[in-house]
Specification:
about 475 residues, two-stranded antiparallel sheet, globular, mainly alpha, about 70% helix
Length: about 475
Amino acid sequence: MDLTALLLSRLQFAFTVSFHIIFPSFTIGLAAWLTVLEALRLVTGRPAYRVVFEFWLKIFGVAFGLGVVSGIVMAFEFGTNWSELAKMSGPIQGPLLSYETFTAFMLEATFFGVLVFGRARVPAWFYLFATGMVALGTTFSAFWIMVNNSWMQVPVGYVMDHGVAVPTDWTRIIFSPVVWVRFPHMLLAAYVTGAFCAAATGAWYLLRREYSAEAHIMLRMGLCLAAVLVPAQIFFGHLAGDYVHDYQPAKFAAIEGRWHDEQPASEVLIALPDLGSETNHYAISVPILGSLIGSMSFTSKEVGLTDFAPQDRPPVLIPFFGFRIMVGCGLAMLALAWIGSYVNLKGRSERSRFLLRLTFLSFPLPFIATLTGWFTAEVGRQPWTVYGVLRTADAMTPFLTARAATISLVVFCAVYLFIFAFGIFYIYRLLRAGPVGSLVLPPTAAIPNRPMSVVDEPIASSTHHVAAGE
């Protein structure tokens, strides 16, 4: 086995999955919000909801396309870089990925076409139904991916037959208690991401004194949704911590920065872990709190990393700091959502420009929280790909060379960054154009055999506004 090829393959998959997860974490929440907007338009008849809907639909389309393209590549990496994993887990992971195709992709592809081309061709109730089906499709996609990943975290419902995991109980695999903790946690993370992106955009327009009616809808709905969703997200995050505590004690010890057994255990708020001396420097700890968080007890014994052989321990620094960054972002979003919602209810949002600036600058927080949460979960699982069954070193394609891994890593990074740059630039152009009437009215040339005609007018409108210095 080429250790350099192993490291490069891990870096490649980490890069592609980190790039990819940005887009689903945005579009899943945005699709649900679009459904709410369309329902409000039908109930209230208020034109501003239609304007906001059409504005965000364009952005959803771009982000959705980027997410699909960047996600497909990861399935190929199972064959090119991780063929031993594909061989061992194929009977389980293959069907799960096919279920995502038959449920999520079918709904998304079919009904997204209705959203783009069908506004004037279908009844209003069916257009709302199509919007809900797109949102349901994105939710199905998240569900099957989380089932797949949760099986790798806590494998159940299978037997090993000549080195291959053969499913024996699909009910246990799909309805594992771990899935029903991790799936809501991820789904809520996506909803929070969409809420903060909407609120940040509304705050940006209010700071610029543009599109007042639409900006207030984005700001108010985004912050109010976040004020409800973030506490629920924190609750499911605690439940996810419980599963880690029970099923992956080495990961839990790394997250806690606990080197030695403690009874009762303290909670390390912040420290600088030292892997060489197996201790923490500059630690700030709270006595007993570690036992309370880990076991809901004031006297429980909590295990430390030294209980595990060095080769069975995860890297400490990434899960330790990643978890704290995630929690810090969550607490910051909670404070901002509650304070912002209160100010909005008092009708003082436009006068509180400092709060508007904070809201505008908050849009990276949910993305950072999602990424660091995934880093904590995936790096903390090491040295296992399938926890307790298949080590990462044994999951790699055995004949993969460092040269081949280097070439693919460089090519992937270059292509992804190229796509990302143009995608983000185009989304910025849409944001810069704003929720204006010309963006809402469908172009006369928008016909199914010329789908790019749908975006011609927004680009022209954006160019006009930029040229005019608006």
